[in-house]
Structures are given as structure tokens and as C-alpha cells.
Amino acid sequence: MTTLSRESGTPKAQPFFRSNPVLNRMSKITERADTNTATYAGISVKTCYFLLVTLAGMVVQLLVKASLAGEPVWQTVTFFKKFTVTLSQKETVILGAVLIGGLLAELVGIFARKTIPVTGTLYSASQGYFISFLVFNVLKGYEYLGLEALLLTVAVVAVMSWLYTSGRIQANRKFHTVLLTLLLGSVCFGVLTFVGSLIPATRPYVQSMLQNSVLMIALDVLGLLIASLFLISDFAVIDNCVREGYPRQYEWSAAFGLVFTVIWIYLKILDILIQLAGKNNK
């Protein structure tokens, strides 16, 4: 089937989107290579590289935290309505620069694939820094949640990989329709909640809804489901990248897109664990 689709010259119908923003643009690639094509091994190596860079970003945050331990407190910030963190001016500036830099690196990587070896590295490092800040600065007394989230993320990736490789879930048009429906529903809910919080008449109802821990956990679980389904799409795009003979340079895009989703899943799981910890320890 792969040979036929490559030789016929007839473009295959594609769904509106096929994966996360990083990998979605790969569905429009028309380049093919007879030699030096993308391989599963190459994508795996580059994925491990980005994950190691994420780990390095966590180490950098711990070093920055230790070096600024004697700095005077500049402001106090409350996260998740539960955790209070004191920050020095330098620490606040560094954290802001890391987050903005990571966002810019992600956007550049999405629209300029050739920059992904650099922008993907910067994004992964920024996410590692942010994760370390959450776990070791914000979750004081609950640092174990970071490890629990990691183990659960590995489990989710393993299960979704098994579901895809075994054929129990296929990334076909029906699958993408369901995924798009869930994603648009989640986005619309977020927009309506934001608009409702701006209108005086509906603001009390929105605040009451956002303080409902059961509802918030349910929304987080829905977000985790959407992120997990995106992982199936990622696997399909990566599979197509190898089977269709994309040039080896696209291994970087495939690896970056996969790491993007894995980090997304980790943060959603960590958010759920934080909500559960807050509910059980009022």
C-alpha cells in the first residue's frame, strides 16, 4: 500500500489535522528520499536526546535555586490556591525569560522545521526548568508528586503505544473526528469560562464552578484523555514518516513532536495529582 501511494501520484485525502501543532505540518510534506531516509531508530535517538535536555533543564533550575538562596524576597506568589512561593527578583526574571524563550522556541520550531535541532533543544530545556520549578519550589512537602507523575506518564505512553501497535486504536478519519470534537469542546469551554469571568452577572457562577474540585479534576482527566489520544496521532505520523521515506532531516521534527506530547501528558497528570492532593489535604 505504501508503494502504491508513493508511485500513483494521487494525493491521499487527509483529515483537518493529524497530530499536535509540531507534527501536524508534516502531513503536508511532499519530499521523498531514496537514501538517507528517516528511521525509527533515528527518531528514537533524537527523542531520547530531547528528553535528556529536559532533564538537564531540571538540573539547571536546581543550580539556579541554590545560587540564589541568599537573595532577598521580592514577591510572594500563590499557585493552585494552595502553595505559596517566595521569589527573588533575579529568580523571577530568570523564570519569566525561560518561559518566554520556550514559547518562542516552540513557535519558531513549528513554522521553521530546519531550526528544530536548536529550537527543540531550547524548548525542552525550558520545560525541564519549569517542571523542576513546579516540583521543587511550588510543591514543597509534595515533591513526591513529581515522581508519581513521571511513572504514570511512562505507563500512559506504554499503554497508548501498545494500543496503536496492536491495532486496537487506529488513527483513521473517524478517530481524528472524535479527537477534534473533544479538542474543540475543551477550547470552547475554556473560552466561555473566560468570557463569563469578565461579565459581572456571570462571574460568581464561574468562580463557584472553578472552585468545585470534582469538576476541575474531571476537566483535567478530559485534558489527559485528549493529550493521550494525540499520542496515537503522533505515532501514526511518525509511522507514515518512516514508511513513506521522508528525508532523514525530518527525524528531528518527529522526535520534537513526540516529546511535546509526552511533556503535555506529564503536566496534565501532575495537575491531576495536585488537585487530588489538595482535595485530600484541605
Walk me through what this model shows.
The chain has ten helices and two strands. The protein is globular and about 60 Å long. The termini are far apart. Helices cover 72% and strands 4% of the residues. Strands 1-2 form a two-stranded antiparallel sheet. The protein has one domain. With 282 residues, it is mainly alpha-helical.
Question: What attributes characterize this protein structure?
Answer:
282 residues; 10 helices; 72% helix; 4% strand; disordered N terminus
Sequence-ordered SSE layout with sheet pairings:
Blueprint: H1 2-8, H2 21-24, H3 40-67, E1 75-79, E2 83-87, H4 89-111, H5 116-138, H6 144-165, H7 173-198, H8 203-210, H9 213-243, H10 251-280
Antiparallel strand pairs: 1-2
Helix pairs in contact: 3-5, 3-10, 4-5, 5-10, 6-9, 6-10, 7-8, 7-9, 9-10
Describe what is shown at a glance.
This protein is mainly α. 72% of the residues lie in helices and 4% in strands. The protein contains ten helices and two strands.
User: How many distinct beta strands?
Assistant: 2
**Euclidean distance between termini CA atoms:** 57 Å
C-alpha Rg, in Å?
Answer: 21 Å
- The whole-number mean of residue pLDDT values reads 85
Given the C-alpha coordinates, what overall shape results? globular
The total domain count is 1
Share of helical residues: over 70%
| Largest β-sheet summary | 2 strands, antiparallel
Physical arrangement of strands within the biggest beta sheet: 1-2
- The total count of helices amounts to 10
Strand content: under 5%
Output the structural class. Answer: mainly alpha
N to C succession of SSEs? HHHEEHHHHHHH
Low-confidence stretches: 1-16
